[in-house]
Amino acid sequence: MKKANFFTVFASKVARMTGHPAAFALALLVLLVWAASGPIFKFSDTWQLVINTGTTIITFLMVFIIQNSQNRDTQAMQIKLDELIRASAGAHDALLNLEELSEKELDALRKRYVKLGSKARKDLLEGLMDTSTSDLDPE
Q: Sign of the CA dihedral 80, 86, 92, 94?
């Protein structure tokens, strides 16, 4: 396996650290110190600007960190799901890599599965089994 690039490693570490309860406690402590310093600075515009600027910068940067981590997590989950489909006897291999399909193609597949689900529930009500590997286009 190829070694992860600097940003990937950095984003992973920052996402783990900021998701820790200690990071929340630190952020809360900063807010409390800022609020307590209000009377000292007479609740000035500069006093307000400090917290507004700080939180804006941190939020802006965290969006990219979180998105990077989320993209990798989603991609890893999709690969795992693709492997489960590939390894399952009777599974439809056409469902591999669905995230690359257009909205129209996804909607068409979803409609087929809605039909399969409806048919399976009907079969259950009639005392039949619903665990078959039906075709994708039931009629």
A: positive
